[in-house]
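[job 4471] stage=fold_predict status=RUNNING
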Amino acid sequence: VIQNKAGRQAIAPGMVVDATGDGDVFAGAGEAFELERVHPWLWFLMSNVQDIESALDARKGLFFKSPGKGHALVPWGGEARVNRKIDATNPAEVSEALVECRRMVQEEAARLKASVPGFEDANVSLIADQLGITESRRLLGEYVMTRDDLDRPFDDTIARTGHWTKYDCVYNIPYRSLLPRAIDNLIVAGRCISADHRVHHATKEIPPCMATGQAAGTAAAMAAQAECAVQDVDVHALQARLREQGAILE
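[job 4471] inference complete, writing structure tokens
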């Protein structure tokens, strides 16, 4: 059910891909999930930084040289700075955290101007319009990936990802981790696929989210064409089509 300029309308889709990140669709549809509370982030950009190389050498704060003359990108927030975790699916908690983080951004910007050489005349030129949220809901699907799946092959692999904290390790992502247990026309993609908290550290990153999105969209199209449930998609045919599209499955 949607609300737009034409009023309230209902859409009856043949297939749905839940790429909301927070699992809004599968949660609303009654599928089982796990929920993790997280520390929020609110990145911001400072401009008119003079001699940013010297500022970086001063090591009096965490920031990065950004494209454009005199720009510094500051990753503000996270466990080191925000005292409490929030439920990113709770609008009230998200709003409160956004206000708090914006106040903290102003405090950090003032500290950088006062204490870091080169920031004296800098100003905040951009604050992220949304909080950075690393985790919320995770589907409890047909298969839940665990840390024991590191480097494990699957017959129904539809995507692969490395692990940014464990070099030379790979998680193969099975098609079953994109599938809910009950609903037959819903596929999940992105950071809310069926994986435990530890595996999520790898599967939440942008490249695997792109890869599972490609797999989910392709599988949904195949299910729609065959007029079958997503659980009945020919996985070998799906893998062949993904390879034709350039996906890396081996």
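[job 4471] summary: The CA atoms of residues 118 and 238 lie 54 Å apart.
[job 4471] exit 0
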